[in-house]
Amino acid sequence: MKDTGKLIGSSRKGQVAFEFLLIYSFFIFVFTATLYILSQQAIQQQIYAEGMFAREFIVNFANEINSATLVNGYEKNFSFPNTINSAPYSVSIYNGLIRLNYTTQVEIDLIYPLATNNIFIIRNGVTKDTTTAERSVGVSDGRIRIVNEGGTVVIYDD
Questions:
Q1: Does residue 39 belong to any structural domain of this protein?
Q2: pLDDT of residue 53 exceeding 80
Q3: Could you give the residue ranges of the DSSP H alpha helices within the chain?
Q4: Which of 23, 91, 119, 145 has the fewest CB atoms within 10 Å distance of its CB?
């Protein structure tokens, strides 16, 4: 009989240990799932913040072009950030629209309307018409000059 008692006592200890491991595993699973969800939310917040910075930048650039459209003789230097949150980006103008594109964790493509379609980009002495094809603005230089020359907006990208 003593042998049977020891067997029953050890099986209860084994059952208690198994239940403890089961409960412990459940809480570890809940903890890791919570961490995963929180990290995904943090990533989404970062993407949102990057998008807001890019939107603000493209709106400011479009407002400068729109201001140049309204004021004959307008001239202003405009500076570009080197990157958008460490990601290279491109800015182009075509047919009265300005487009900003960059890729971090996802590809972002922002398009904003301009007040005019009459925009030319002059890069290294070569004039490029933005009504015939999409033309990029050289953001790598960091600076451009926006000028209204007789009702035409000219972006000097030298």
A1: no
A2: yes
A3: 2-70
A4: 23
Output the pLDDT for position 9.
Answer: 60
Please give the model's pTM, rounded to 2 decimal places: 0.72
The token duo for 139 is: 């953001």
Domain span at residue 70 reads 44-156
User: In angstroms, rounded to a whole number, what is the distance separating the alpha carbons of residues 120 and 82?
Assistant: 23
d(CA 66, CA 53): 20
Distances, alpha carbon 100 to alpha carbons 80, 147, 148, in Å: 12, 21, 22
Average pLDDT, the chain: 85
Tell whether 19 is covered by a domain.
no
Identity of residue 112: Y
Closest CA to 147 of 136, 156, 139, 138: 156
Is 93 a member of any domain?
yes
Q: Are 114 and 65 in contact (CB under 8 A)?
A: yes
Counting the structural domains of the chain, the total is 1
CA distance 72 to 47: 39
- Asked which of 6-15, 89-98, 130-139 is least confident by mean pLDDT, the reply is 6-15
| 3-class SS of residue 71 | coil
Given a cut of 90, is residue 44 above it in pLDDT?
A: no
Mean pLDDT of 92-104: 89
